[in-house]
Amino acid sequence: MQRILTGDRPTGPLHLGHWVGSLSQRVELQNDYDTYILIADVQALTDNFDNPDKVRTNVLQVLLDNIAAGLDPEKVTFILQSAVPQTAELTVFLANLISVNKLGHNPTVKTEMQQKGMDESVPLGFFMYPVSQAADISVYDANLVPVGEDQVPHIEVTRQLVRKFNGIYGDTLVEPEAKVSQFGRLVGTDNNAKMSKSLNNAIYLSESSEDLKQKIMSMYTDPSRIRATDPGTVEGNPVFIYHDAFNPDTDEVNDLKERYRKGTVGDVEVKQKLLAALETFLAPIRERRSKYDNEDTLMQILRAGTEKGRNTAADVIGRVKDAMKIVRV
Ligand code: TRP
């Protein structure tokens, strides 16, 4: 069986954007692949080193979000990144194989540096996290990496590092492939391209019915449409983007779109139907959350998965050291 490796930085609860970008693919692929999910706490610290409490408290939350989303803890291997020291070893070896200049061209890192105000002075750990991410993937011999679009440059760095490593030291590491979600990126409820807690524009997998209703009913729609009888624009309208992503009743969605374009449906009805669709979507997620929402259970899942991951990583690092002619004592 081929192996999947993907993961999340534990910096906050997972939201519908994570579902569209990555979680839905994981759930779909878990039966066909040996699936490893990384709780990337070391990477989370690269831009949260001064807020360790935030990372710590989100480790089990992100694990629970993954399980609630539908990943079966009986099948899937959940790994705590910091508890696999072989990843740090491989990061150091791979760091020899890429230039600072090349790392500086990574578009995702560049955007993040701007957003986080790191333009003037970027911490080395953050700047080189794509190398550490390449180690995350390679240290488990992963074949496939299901990710959102923003992660593609990192998988490209990984592929280049693997090719370079294998070229110099002989065939050792597996060259992985990215699997990018079909849907693309989900906008925030306010039409902002980025979802964040501070903007209050994200809907979480753990959202309560009350907050969900409030967020949906105040969602941004077509700003040029004043009355329900005005013809409206469907394309690029967040309410319809969400319908397309989360309402499986395509007849209903098409009917709403048609009437919206003609000006024979109000925003309220469109939003109420979206709310109903999201309630249906979230129901099984909430059920699984309540079943697994127990610290001991979650710790046990994480401990068992991490141990398994560490064994895989130890094998790979053994191969890596042999290939690099490192003296073993
Ligand atoms: N960079 C990813 C994110 O921000 C998290 C991540 C860490 C990851 N290591 C990974 C994703 C390895 C895929 C593979 O969401």
Automatic annotation (TrEMBL):
<keyword id="KW-0436">Ligase</keyword>
<dbReference type="GO" id="GO:0005829">
    <property type="term" value="C:cytosol"/>
</dbReference>
<dbReference type="GO" id="GO:0006436">
    <property type="term" value="P:tryptophanyl-tRNA aminoacylation"/>
</dbReference>
<keyword id="KW-0067">ATP-binding</keyword>
<dbReference type="InterPro" id="IPR014729">
    <property type="entry name" value="Rossmann-like_a/b/a_fold"/>
</dbReference>
<keyword id="KW-0648">Protein biosynthesis</keyword>
<dbReference type="InterPro" id="IPR002306">
    <property type="entry name" value="Trp-tRNA-ligase"/>
</dbReference>
<comment type="similarity">
    <text>Belongs to the class-I aminoacyl-tRNA synthetase family.</text>
</comment>
<dbReference type="InterPro" id="IPR002305">
    <property type="entry name" value="aa-tRNA-synth_Ic"/>
</dbReference>
<dbReference type="Pfam" id="PF00579">
    <property type="entry name" value="tRNA-synt_1b"/>
</dbReference>
<keyword id="KW-0547">Nucleotide-binding</keyword>
<protein>
    <recommendedName>
        <fullName>Tryptophan--tRNA ligase</fullName>
        <ecNumber>6.1.1.2</ecNumber>
    </recommendedName>
</protein>
<dbReference type="InterPro" id="IPR050203">
    <property type="entry name" value="Trp-tRNA_synthetase"/>
</dbReference>
<dbReference type="GO" id="GO:0004830">
    <property type="term" value="F:tryptophan-tRNA ligase activity"/>
</dbReference>
<keyword id="KW-0030">Aminoacyl-tRNA synthetase</keyword>
<dbReference type="GO" id="GO:0005524">
    <property type="term" value="F:ATP binding"/>
</dbReference>
